[in-house]
Amino acid sequence: MKRITVMALGATLLLASASYTPPAAPKGWEPLLDKSLSKWRTYESYRHQLGYRGKQPTDAQGNAIKPIGYDKNEANVFSVVMQEGEPVLRISGEIYGCVFTKQDFTNYDLKLKVKWGSKKWVPRLDEPRDSGILYNSQGECGVDYWHSWMLSQEFQVSEYERGNAMGDFWCIANSTADIKAAYNATKDTLRFNPTAAPVTMGNGRSGFCQAAANYESPTGQWTELELINVNGKSVHIVNGHVVMAVDNSSSVVNGQHQPLTHGKIQLQSEAAEVYYKGIMIKPLEAMPAQYASYFKQNK
C-alpha cells in the first residue's frame, strides 16, 4: 500500500511539473531565453592556456590553430535546463566564446539574473569568476584580445575580488567611450564616480573602469542585472543600484570615431561556470528621466 501511495505521489508531482507554466513576461517585455536557445547563436574559440598573451594559439609546429567556430557546441559549453518551468542557461566556461542574439538591438532596457557555478578552468583557476554582457556588438567574433568576441562594450559580470565587481566596464576590441571616473584608493585603476570629470576609455588608453561599488548577492543567490542602453549612453545596474554610466559609445576605425549605438547582445564563456535566467528586453524611446543626471556635465 505504501509503495502504491509513493508511486501515485510521484506521478502527481511529475504531472504538476509537466503542466507548470512560468509567469508571463511583464507587458512590453520580450523574453529572450527559451529551452532551445532559438533566439541565439553560439561561437567557440579556444581552450586558452596559461601564458597566453593575446596571440592566436598555435600547434606544436607553430601553425596557427583555427577557432572552433560558429554554431558549434563542443564540450556542451552552452545548455539550457528547465527549473520550475523556467529556462536557465548554463555556460560552462570550458571553452572561450559566447552566445549572441540573432537580432540586432538599439535603444532598450535589458534585464537578467546571474548566479555562479562551481567550476573554473585554465587560465582563471586562481582568478575571480568571470563572464560578461557585451552590448552594441557588431561584426565578426574573434576581433578582441582573446580572439573570442565581437567589437562591443562590456557590462562585466565578475565575482567580487581584488576590486573586480559586477557592472565593471571594459572596451572590447577597438571600442571607446567616456566615463565619469577617478582613481580608486590604490591609485592603480579608474573607478566610476558620477561627480568626477569624464575620462575617455580605450583608443590607446585604459579600457577598464571599476564599478562604483559591489552589490553582488551572497554566494548561491541570484544577482539581478539591468542594462539601459539608449543612443550611445548606457547605465549598468546591479540589484537596483547604478554602478556605471557610459557615454559617447563609439569605435575607432582608421583613426576616426564612429558611433557604436546598436548591435547584438553577447553573453561570454570565460573559464568559469555561470548561470543566467529571466533574460528579457524592452524597447525604449529615450533614456529614462531618473538616469539623466549621470550624463549631465558637472559644474
TrEMBL record:
Keywords: Signal. Residues 1-24 form the signal peptide. The keyword Signal applies. Pfam families: 3keto-disac_hyd (PF06439). This is DUF1080 domain-containing protein. InterPro entries: AL/BT2_dom. The keyword Signal applies. GO terms for molecular function: hydrolase activity. Residues 28-282 form the 3-keto-alpha-glucoside-1,2-lyase/3-keto-2-hydroxy-glucal hydratase domain. It comes from the Bacteria.
